[in-house]
Automatic annotation (TrEMBL), chain A:
Coiled-coil intervals: none
SUPFAM superfamilies assigned: TM0957-like (SSF141318)
Top-level taxon of origin: Bacteria
Position of the signal peptide: none
Phylogenetic placement of the source organism: Bacteria, Pseudomonadati, Bacteroidota, Chitinophagia, Chitinophagales
Protein name: DUF2291 domain-containing protein
Automatic annotation (TrEMBL), chain B:
Main location: membrane
Entry annotated with the keyword Oxidoreductase: no
Protein name: Ribose ABC transporter permease
Organism from which the protein derives: Niastella populi
GO cellular component, one term: plasma membrane
Keywords, in A-Z order: Cell membrane, Membrane, Transmembrane, Transmembrane helix
Subcellular location: Cell membrane
Positions of transmembrane segments: 12-32, 69-86, 98-120, 132-150, 170-191, 223-241, 277-296
An annotated Gene Ontology molecular function: transmembrane transporter activity
Lineage: Bacteria, Pseudomonadati, Bacteroidota, Chitinophagia, Chitinophagales
């Protein structure tokens, strides 16, 4: 009997010690003072959109200029103009295109763009705007400034949401076949085997310049 | 003379996993010069440590003629619980309290959660006589759902350097996960060979009715065995989480199949009563070496699955052939 009591006492002591070393309890109100504020993705993106992104859109290369850069020195062109935070060959950049609307489809608008002797078609995505293309192409977000990927992904979500809710509705609602359109947006190219044919642009800015 | 022949056959059966592994290593070493390097060796050992932990628990279950399909999901849930408690603790706004967890506390909580889930499996199997395949299949889904709820579908990352040491650190020139797997294996060998529980496990798997008639409390033994397997899955979950420095909601998917494969390749009979922890370790090493070799040889991931499946099939056929003799 005595041995049993000692056994249980020892067991209780060990459990008590483990519990003491395992948890600590403090007042939640005290903790909230110490705890850093959670990342406010909408506010961060709003500031990015209003203050830094316009300059990047202005300085974006035209598709023809980008093609010339890629032809001259692909390595340098990718290094200078493209960016990606992910592992893989796909890199993103912002481009400007001006062209005539060939067709208005459910998911995209097809433009005919480029000089008369080097014309090509590009698609402007008007339905599915997802992924990190716009964030990475803007080159405004640095991975080292963030402690986790969730916050980084939230920036993409917010940027895409802004395009879907603020840029596209007005454009989609008015654009028609034959219109002249000015659009700046993000494209993704595979560094290993890139082609500017059949490009899809995730728009950030779209204007109808002539109806 | 017949006795000597039988003894030789038994020794050969015991050695077949080892022979298979040596042959496999020779073939891969001939085909890839990167295989027999120290770095790759440590890499393989580090990778198989998680499978060894899960497989050891699975072996105990299979020895009782049971199976546990939930270990992969339990691994994910326990990894997430450990990471969540370590990083966020528990907030009780109504009581204005925050319960924080130290590294020790979060590790214990993860392992206890794993043990509790295993015990629940055992409880359902013994109390309601639900076949282990069905009850653990249900737990597979439940635990995965709970993981999604706990993590809200997002990874829990940045768990600190101390926690990372468990999965990526070194101790006395050997990776920490290898130490952990070694301790788990030694404890399991001790339990199966030197304790009453070990003898009961073999007895239940060999002949459950005879075990009942011998006065063995089979329900109690099964509860303990499923509890141990759950706790070991949690240990695996902690190792995976630590290695990635992140608890992934979809971690451990398919791990149960690797564990069962290690057990089967290691010579443990799926009908229970026959097998050993050493065999399972060898099975896990074979799978690890095979995975590593196929990657080094640039074999497509799709073919890797086919090859792995074929190896398991061959192991079972050889095992069946050996028993017929």
């Amino acid at each position: 009997m005595a041995r049993k009591i000692i056994k249980y006492l020892l067991l209780t002591a060990v459990i008590g010690l483990l519990a003491y070393k395992s948890v600590f309890i403090i007042k939640l109100s005290e903790l909230q003072v110490i705890e850093p504020k959670a990342f406010d993705a909408p506010a961060f993106t709003q500031q990015l959109w209003d203050t830094k992104l316009p300059a990047k859109l202005d300085s974006a290369l035209t598709l023809d200029a980008l093609q010339a850069e890629l032809k001259a020195n692909p390595g340098r062109a990718f290094e200078t103009y493209f960016n990606s935070m992910s592992i893989g060959n796909v890199q993103y950049t912002l481009v400007k295109v001006t062209g005539k609307v060939l067709s208005v489809n459910e998911d995209d608008v097809v433009l005919l763009t480029g000089a008369r002797d080097a014309q090509r078609t590009v698609k402007i995505a008007t339905e599915y705007v997802y992924g990190n293309a716009i964030r990475d192409a803007s080159r405004l977000v640095k991975i080292k400034d963030f402690v986790n990927t969730t916050d980084l992904n939230k920036i993409s979500e917010e940027l895409n949401k802004r395009v879907r809710t603020k840029v596209l509705p007005a454009f989609k609602g008015t654009v028609q076949k034959g219109d002249s359109v000015d659009c700046t947006g993000a494209i993704g190219l595979n560094q290993a085997h890139y082609s500017l044919d059949g490009l899809e642009i995730l728009p950030v800015q779209c204007k109808i310049i002539q109806q | 003379m017949i006795a000597i022949q039988k003894n030789n056959a038994l020794n050969l059966a015991r050695l077949q996993s080892l022979i298979a592994m040596v042959v496999l290593c020779i073939i891969i070493a001939i085909m890839s010069d990167k295989f027999l390097t120290m770095d790759n060796g440590w890499n393989v050992l580090r990778q198989i440590s998680v499978n060894i932990c899960i497989s050891v628990g699975m072996t105990l279950i299979v020895l009782t003629a049971g199976i546990d399909l939930s270990v992969g999901s339990v691994l994910a849930l326990c990894g997430a619980i450990t990471a969540g408690l370590l990083k966020n603790g528990i907030k009780l706004p109504t009581l204005d309290l925050f319960i924080g967890f130290t590294l020790l506390g979060s590790l214990l909580a993860g392992i206890i959660a794993g043990g509790a889930l295993g015990l629940f499996n055992g409880f359902v199997i013994t109390k309601f006589k639900v076949p282990p395949f069905v009850s653990t299949l249900a737990m597979l889904t439940i635990a995965r759902g709970l993981t999604m709820l706990w993590t809200q579908g997002h990874p829990i990352s940045n768990l600190g350097p101390a926690f990372s040491t468990i999965g990526t650190g070194w101790m006395l020139g050997i990776p920490v996960p290898v130490w952990i797997a070694g301790v788990v294996v030694l404890l399991a060998i001790f339990i199966t060979r030197q304790t009453r529980l070990g003898r009961y496990i073999y007895a239940i798997g060999g002949n459950e009715n005879a075990a009942i008639l011998s006065g063995i409390s089979i329900n109690k033994v099964k509860l303990i065995v499923y509890g141990i397997a759950g706790a070991l899955a949690a240990v695996g979950g902690i190792m995976v989480t630590s290695r990635l420095d992140s608890a992934q909601p979809n971690a451990g998917t398919g791990y149960e199949l690797d564990a069962i494969a290690a057990v089967v390749i290691g010579g443990t009979s799926l009908s229970g009563g026959k097998g050993s922890i050493g065999g399972t370790v060898m099975g896990a090493v074979i799978i690890g070496v095979l995975n590593n070799g196929l990657v080094l040889l640039n074999v497509s991931p799709f073919w890797q699955q086919v090859v792995k499946g074929a190896v398991i099939l061959i192991a079972v056929i050889i095992d069946k052939g050996g028993k017929k003799k």
